[in-house]
Structure formats: C-alpha cells, structure tokens
Amino acid sequence: MTRIKICGLTSLQDARAAADLGAWALGMILHADSPRRCSLEEASSICDSLRRRVELCGVFVNAHLDDVVGTARELGLTMLQLHGDEGPAYCLEARRRSGARIVKAKQVSIPGDVREIERYRVDFHLLDARSRKHPGLRGGTGETFDWKLIAGRRSRIPLILSGGIDAGNAAEAIAAVQPYALDSASGTESAPGRKDHEKTAALFAAVQATEAVPAQDDLSNHPVAELT
C-alpha cells in the first residue's frame, strides 16, 4: 500500500488526527522562514505523544549540521528531511551522527533534476515541484510538476512524491509514479500549518481506494511486491 506522510504539522491535535488515520510519517518543519514552522515545544509534544506509532520527521533547510543533529537528538526524530542545498556528504554525516533515516528533497522542473538526486545515497528521495509562482519557496506551494519527468527513473532508493498532493489527484499520482509514499502539506490544510481534518481523511480514503482489489480478481495473478 502506498504510504502517506503528512507534513507541515504545527499542533499535536492535527498530528494525532493524522496518526489515527494511518499516517506512515509526520513532518514538522523546523525552518524559521516557513509559514508552517513548528515550534520546538510543539514538536516535542508531537514526538513524545506519538513515538513508536509513526515516523517522526524533522524538515530542515540549509541548517548547520550541528543544529540538525542536536535537534534530532533532543526531539528523538526518526527521519530528517533535508530540503535545501545540502550535499551528499552532509546527508551521510547527518545520518551517521543522528541515527535517523535521511530524506533528501529535490525540486523538479527538468529531467536533469531527477537525475541529479541520484548522487544522494540516502534512505529516501523526495521530489517536489519547483514553484513557478514562488521560485524562492522550498515547498508547500500547492503546485504539482510534470510526473512524466519521473517515468524514466531507475533507482533502488524509495521515492516520496510531493507537490500539490491532495485527495483529488492522489490516485492519478499513484498510477503515474508508483511512489513508496505520498507527501501532503498544503493539500490537507485549511491554512498554512493548520490541517483540515476532512481533507486529510479524504486523502487517506483516496489512497486506500487505489489499493482495493475486486472480489472476482484472481490474487494469484498479482506478484507480491518486495518492500524496500
């Protein structure tokens, strides 16, 4: 089943609601310039309350490595999403020092962007839209990108698809890309950093509907996918 990462969380209430729906990972943006910035106090509450239920992902943008590692240890993060210009060596050192799994994010607008991220031998690749309207923003714009750019991707590293994901396009995204997980921030919000629980539930329902197997289908004809 395609997993779901709910990102841009700023409150324990919203985080619990996402976890109750079956979220695989919860993303807390710890970048000061983001409109979805999660305070360390609230991030601590989320991590303390939901530890061992979900992956706890801190999102960083061009932060000093010591700060990233220190915050990961303080909060007990299990994943670090690096959404800036961090290089491959930085990513490997962050994993070594924190013990957390690494998600390297890349904004996509041309085929070369997809090829470039293969330099990063991390735990997950996350592909997001390079905003046309807001080129300075690192994500959360609600814009999608041309998923055909991923069609030629050949990689052993699991892919998390981001960029304008919501209940209305989740099925199409899964069919087009077959990602390990979908990542949604703006697509499940009522305002930046505030989750709309109906939109969030609708996203989960849309993803679950893509996994339904008709009763008359012969399951023996479907090979079991090897999980990464």
Question: Can you characterise this structure?
Answer:
- Mean pLDDT is 89; it is low at 215-228.
- With 228 residues, this protein is an alpha/beta fold.
- The protein has one domain: Alpha-Beta Barrel (TIM Barrel), CATH 3.20.20.
- Helix content is 31%, strand content 20%.
- The protein contains 7 helices and 10 strands.
- The protein is globular.
- An 8-stranded parallel barrel has the order 1-2-3-4-5-6-7-8, surrounded by 5 helices. A two-stranded antiparallel ribbon has the order 9-10.
- Helix 3 packs parallel to helix 4.
Global Rg: 17 Å
Any idea what the CATH architecture is?
Answer: Alpha-Beta Barrel
Number of domain modules: 1
CATH topology: TIM Barrel
Number of helices: 7
Tell me the fraction of residues in β-strands, as a range: 15-25%
In terms of structural class, how would the helical and strand content be classed?
alpha/beta
- What's the CATH class, please? Alpha Beta
> Biggest sheet, in brief?
8 strands, parallel, barrel
Shape: globular
Ranges where pLDDT stays below 50 over 5 or more residues in a row are: 215-228
Ends distance: 12 Å
Would you identify the CATH H-level superfamily?
Aldolase class I
What fraction, in percent, of the residue positions are helical? 25-40%
Count of beta strands: 10
Mean pLDDT across residues: 89
Question: What is the N-to-C succession of helices and strands?
Answer: EHEHEHEHEHEEHEEEH
Q: Strand order within the widest sheet?
A: 1-2-3-4-5-6-7-8
Features:
228 residues, alpha/beta, TIM Barrel, eight-stranded parallel barrel, 10 strands, disordered C terminus
